[in-house]
Write a structure and sequence with these properties.
71% helix; mainly alpha; Serine Threonine Protein Phosphatase 5, Tetratricopeptide repeat; 27 helices; 499 residues
Length: 499
Amino acid sequence: MLRLCLPFLFFLTCALPARSAKYFAFTPAARQAYELATSLRFGEAYASMAQMKLEDPNNLIVHHIENYIDFFTLYIQEDEATYRKLRKNRDLRLEKVKAGDRNSPYYLFVQADIRLQWALVRLRFEDYLGAFTEVSKAYKLLKENEELFPGFMPNKKDLGILHAMVGTIPDSYKWGIKLLSGLDGTITQGRREVEEVLAYSQQNDFIFREETVALYAYLLLHLDNEGEEAWRAVAGSSLRPGANPMHCFVMANIAMRTGRNEQAIKLLEQRKRGKTFFPFPYLDYMLGLAKLRRLDHDATPHFQRFILHYQGSNFIKEAYQKMAWQELINGNPKGYERYMQACLANGSPIAGGDKNAQQEAEHGTAPDLTLLKARLLFDGGYFLKGYRILADRSPENFSYPEGQLEYYYRMGRLLHGLNRYDEALQYYQFTIEKGAGSPHFYACNAALQMGLIHESKGAYPQARAAFERCLNIEPEEYRTGLHQKAKSGLARIEEKGWQ
């Protein structure tokens, strides 16, 4: 009887899932943990994963979800001590993942995604060599996985973003590009791949749907210069800004970058708060900035709340600068001086905005109130109001050269926002002629904006010349970001056949 049963038992053992083996699966419990982690509800996410480890100990997808929590913690908090404490988790998780099922499409993908998340973290903490190394290794894993599982959509999500970005890396990071040997692609290729993933997510239950929407929107905004398309992508999506702080951040950020300041204020004021969520102080900074751009008089408490709860060093100098500007708008020059002294004493002048704030504080002279209001109103999308304020003045009203230079630049930006392109081009040209040798960013961005106007009109030779002019100007402020955008513009033009 036993001999008769043995073949049946052998067949049954082979047919049933081998739960003793390590595997990857977004089970209902894993999906819940992922949703909680990406909603910054870390306490609940950890509780959910603890239950997973008890009931489903061989499901290695838990290590991927844990890495999301470390990624968000470090990127939002930006605390050096926490970074030193958590970075050991990367190696431990990769080792555990490597013990999983090699025949699963998640086997290589999870390793690559963990590396990409740590690449962003390393960039945040200025470990540029480590970041490029992570990207290089992640890309090789993704390419290998693509050959094994060509229809695996999570893999295509990551590859699409890498393909879109590779040609837009500024020349100042040429040394890092050498580490990315074999990584090539175009904005069009990457966009097409991400759009394929989005189309799939609309017809299937795709765990990374909202994540892909956010990545696609940033691709449109920063690489393809399609702000309106970026806003439509998030506004028409399943993002839940009222319930998920990360979704609120994405939507408010894109709203602020596309002239939808009122919408951004509404999103940020209506966001969910409380001890359930991991603290996200930068949302307070964003709300303060949006209110300042509307020339409100109550932006300062939001910046103060940001400084009180933020543990990093970036944006601190900017926050003090913005509170100083609030004092100017409120008619209190002594308050301006007090906050600019705090700007000198706090934070780190590494990021472009902080560096700009530091330089203003060291200069010791308050900005002209008319130019300041014009700047803020433009940034908020209030183009007509800003234009009317600036149109009452002329370059001759500014006795110092930098004031005249900024006047030309601000007028060009406002006319650009009003779609008065021919006039904007004239003011941009004035800005370049008078400011190409200035340490300020005005001429560099004027050249970039000229390129964008020409590109929008299909005048690709003129656009290419303007983007190249931008790359040839080396301001002390915002140079890396401006050059990256110019490289993106050149990449778009080259894809259209204009070498």
